[in-house]
Amino acid sequence: MEELVQLIRISPELVAKAMTYSEYKNLIEKLFTEGKTTGPNQSESYLEYTRMAIQRMKRWDKTIRIDERMTELVSKLPPQLWMLITEAWCGDAAQTIPYISKLADLNPDIQLRLILRDENPGIMDQYLTNGARSIPKLISLSPGLQMEYFVWGPKPAYLMEKQREFKTDPKEKTSKEFTEEVHLWYARDKNHTLGAELSTCFYQAFDL
């Protein structure tokens, strides 16, 4: 019989235990040096995904630039919590979380915290994507956690559509080829699409 997971709200206790971006990076780097990653899957392939994720986050941390328009927009946002659901091995997370972190750094009223998907199934199952526990998921909440402002994820809409097309007819390329194309797209896009989608979230959620 399939286990039923109790759905729970994001609570002050969970926020207190959640990680900052720096703590998250330190955790996954420490685990990797021990030959481990986050979550129950400790296979060689997931360790390799984690190695690549660490490299990508380091690269983005050094190269991300936020334009003036986005800087001004984020500075106008009211106090809020950004809760990110992720895992160390997730390629989409490695490509997008550094940019989200840079945005949060622009506004002292934005608190960014990260939690692991597989340690928090009751939270994750409230933010499924087409029935799947796809990550990362960014949830914006009021400081008191009573109101949800917006949700983004697990990837830009363009990639969501490309993934749907690939799953519908995967004959044209292998899974490895498709994944390589996805990461090449991220490198060329330089988070412009992510920024545009988050801007839409901001305008829809707040009277700016």
Textual characterization of the structure:
Pfam families: Thioredoxin_9. This protein has 208 residues and is of the alpha+beta class. The chain has one domain: 3-Layer(aba) Sandwich (Glutaredoxin), CATH 3.40.30. It is 51% helix and 12% strand. The protein contains 9 helices and 4 strands, in the order ααααβαβαββααα. The chain has a 4-stranded mixed β-sheet with strand order 2-1-3-4. β3 and β4 form a beta hairpin. The protein is globular and about 45 Å long. The N terminus is likely disordered.
Structural class: alpha+beta
Query: Regions with pLDDT < 50 over 5+ consecutive residues?
Result: 1-6
Number of helices: 9
Level-2 CATH architecture: 3-Layer(aba) Sandwich
- Please identify which CATH superfamily we are dealing with: Glutaredoxin
User: Got a strand count?
Assistant: 4
Order of helices and strands: HHHHEHEHEEHHH
The end-to-end span amounts to 49 Å
Per DSSP, what share of the residues sits in E-state strands of 2 or more residues? 5-15%
Domain module tally: 1
Report strand order across the widest sheet: 2-1-3-4
Overall body shape: globular
Helix content: 40-55%
